[in-house]
Amino acid sequence: MRIMRLLPRPASCIRVCLFAFSALMLTLCTAHPAMLYAQDAPESREPVRIEDAQGNTITFEVGEAAFADSVTSFTPGDPMSAQDATQGTLALGLPNYERGQGISTAITLGCGGVLQVQFTDNVLVDGPGPDLHIFEVGPDVEPTFVAVSTDGQAWQDVGQIEGGTASVDIAAVADSDDVFRFVQLTDDGEDCSGSYPGADIDAVGAINASEVVELAGALLFDVDSSALRPAAQTALRDIATTLQERGVTSVTIVGHTDAQGDATYNQTLSLERARSVRTYLVDTLGVADMDVAVRGAGESEPAASNDTAEGRRQNRRVEFIF
After folding, report:
1. Backbone torsions φ then ψ of 19, nearest 5 degrees
2. pTM of the entire predicted model
């Protein structure tokens, strides 16, 4: 596997995914509650070009951060591979397959097997050309169905990889402001012979990805309120400084709630909160040199389970996507 690191893009174009849960601390975003296993988050954000097993070269502008970070579900097919199911982690991070070494670096799905992975330090978005690349081991890509999701529950089919094609365009299911954190790969169940039946997945990479900075809702707002708390000012000032220093020209502010109460009310509240943040950034802090859009997601894009108090706390948040 050849990996070539490129010179960094201008700051306004670098896209990674970091989440801030307080005015004083930036942490990597919390993984989905169903996460089975994960790897440490990659550090390099420099663009890389990687050659896949079929000889195609793909550029990932966010570097190592472009690749899936955790496995949320793995259902081995029948017959299943000789590998242990916990080896789903082989599909995480940078691809590391080398020709002639067999498939020891990839996870074999088994006949009809299903693998679900999550991005925790970037989000998949629709952009120019293909948006997602699946690194499948072998001279030809084994037929595999691909789906994406915003919440890890509702899936949208985006096509199939096979033969010499391992890249997918998600334009058919993505609006301009949609972000996807989950990818599902399903072996087609046709080639079930040998010790390693089904697709052999080495890595899952987001070609088009966006950076997301997140602030906890409790830091910004009181319960059932869209009025900014005094403590929010420092956090938003830090956000404004970050956006300006990096030369960001456009940002979308997205409000989120938990699933408690009426969905329509939550949708309205999330939008009002996003608008309050925009007003403060533009009118008070003078962030007028960039396009600032707002969106209310309500309870539709949870970052964690709404079944626990901690999960609901994580879901009450405001995101800055750029």
Report:
1. -125, 130
2. 0.76
